[in-house]
Design brief:
This protein has helices spanning 40-47, 51-71, 75-80, 83-98, 117-189, 191-207, 224-227; strands spanning 10-20, 26-37, 103-114. By secondary structure, it is an alpha+beta fold. α2 (51-71) crosses α4 and α5 crosses α6 (191-207). It is rod-shaped and about 155 Å long.
């Protein structure tokens, strides 16, 4: 009797398999296997030519490979490791052991790595606390930097205001000095006209508003230019 075997690539998926990490954390792994018959005689001897039995035994071989790889690493290492590196190590171990079944292991792929609900809750809480600490530290650093910036800005403001006040006083002093020189030159040219002009300014300031009341002696010097306009004279050129 001649027994024929299908040499096409066969695929089979496995879901919900649990494996323990090096730190005792459970991981739920979904994976699939692709294989084909390579040595019919050895395949028939090992499995009786039954495809379902070959799939079961091959699954156990792959599970042993996954178990070995996962058991060598902590949960953090599994999560942070490159998926290709982990899968490559699994495939290498499983491929060597699958040769005893007379099959060629074409591919092994991890489709999903997840945590049991209770483990996921603990990991989530741990991550939450870690992020809270980081946020608190960053917030404190930000507040410290903000206080430093505000203090620096306040110091700069004080310096700028002091410089502005100093410059304003200097300019005001220079202006007052220039005005005094102008007044002095005007007085030197025609003292009588200068006195008359200053009297007009005094009249404007004292009598320029409605309702102003001024109590002075009519014989005083305040009204001398109103009483004796002939005393004024045009400025000499």
């Amino acid at each position: 009797m001649v027994t024929k075997f299908d040499r096409r690539i066969l695929s089979q998926s496995y879901t919900g398999e649990t494996f323990l990490t090096n730190d005792g954390r459970g991981l739920i792994v979904d994976f699939y296997v692709k294989w084909r018959v390579k040595e019919p005689g050895l395949y028939f001897t090992a499995t009786g030519g039954r495809e379902d039995l070959a799939g079961e035994r091959l699954a156990e071989i792959v599970k042993d490979g996954i178990k070995s790889v996962v058991a060598q690493r902590t949960l953090q290492q599994i999560v942070s490791a490159e998926r290709a590196a982990v899968t490559g190590q699994m495939f290498g171990q499983a491929s060597h052991n699958a040769a005893g079944l007379g099959v060629d292991l074409v591919d092994v792929r991890v489709q999903r790595i997840d945590l049991p609900d209770e483990v996921a809750a603990r990991v989530y809480e741990s991550m939450k606390q870690s992020f809270a600490k980081t946020a608190s530290r960053l917030r404190a650093e930000g507040q410290s930097a903000s206080a430093g910036i505000r203090a620096s800005a306040e110091r700069q403001r004080t310096v700028i205001l002091a410089d502005a006040e100093r410059d304003a006083l200097r300019v005001r002093g220079e202006g007052d000095g220039a005005a005094a020189q102008i007044y002095a030159r005007a007085y030197a040219k025609n003292p009588e006209f200068y006195a008359f002009y200053r009297s007009l300014q005094a009249y404007e300031r004292s009598l320029g508003k409605d309702g102003d009341l001024l109590v002075v002696s009519p014989d005083g010097d305040f009204f001398k230019y109103l009483k004796e306009p002939s005393r004024t004279s045009a400025p000499r050129r």
